[in-house]
């Protein structure tokens, strides 16, 4: 790929990462996501970008909602599981404590905060697809200082579990 200079810019960013989970057709899936953020205030909207190569992308394609989880730095093993393993080969939910949301979407017990969002649109972004979410359920409020949350730099060592 030609060097556009964008990597030099994005390497300076240290965005918070999240774990996204989905369920559809009797399957559960989840992955570590580095591209996500609030995209509207009124109405409140959030977008997560999932790689087309990812098992979670395939399950999310049939899902009605996704759960987005924020994890503390102490939750690095959870991020390594959901970022470094692929649901094509491993049942990540057999290795992590979780419970179903009201609509059945998996909620990870090790998350600092989470919300479930109804998928209102899917946006082609190239090798990733954006899932536009309308929040419908969320974790109880609690302190979550940004300095304590996992960031891109914390997980740079995690090799993606999905095939390249």
From TrEMBL:
It comes from Streptomyces toxytricini. Its EC number is 1.5.1.-. This is Flavin reductase family protein. GO terms for molecular function: oxidoreductase activity. PANTHER family: FLAVIN REDUCTASE, POSSIBLE OXIDOREDUCTASE. It holds the Pfam family Flavin_Reduct. Keywords: Oxidoreductase. Residues 13-159 form the Flavin reductase like domain. The keyword Oxidoreductase applies. The keyword Oxidoreductase applies. InterPro entries: Flavin_Rdtase-like_dom (IPR002563), NADH-dep_flavin_reductase (IPR050268), Split_barrel_FMN-bd (IPR012349).
């Amino acid at each position: 790929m030609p060097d556009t200079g964008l990597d030099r810019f994005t390497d300076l960013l240290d965005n918070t990462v999240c774990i996204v989970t989905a369920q559809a057709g009797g399957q559960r899936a989840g992955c570590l996501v580095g591209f996500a953020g609030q995209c509207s205030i009124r109405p409140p909207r959030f977008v997560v970008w999932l790689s087309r190569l990812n098992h979670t992308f395939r399950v999310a394609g049939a899902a009605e909602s996704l759960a987005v989880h924020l994890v503390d730095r102490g939750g690095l093993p959870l991020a390594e599981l959901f970022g470094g393993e692929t649901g094509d080969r491993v049942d990540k939910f057999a290795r992590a404590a979780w419970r179903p949301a009201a609509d059945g979407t998996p909620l990870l017990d090790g998350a600092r905060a989470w919300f479930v969002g109804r998928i209102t649109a899917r946006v082609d972004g190239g090798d990733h697809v954006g899932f536009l979410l309308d929040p419908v359920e969320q974790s109880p409020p609690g302190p979550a200082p940004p300095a304590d949350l996992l960031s891109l730099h914390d997980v740079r060592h995690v090799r993606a579990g999905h095939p390249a």
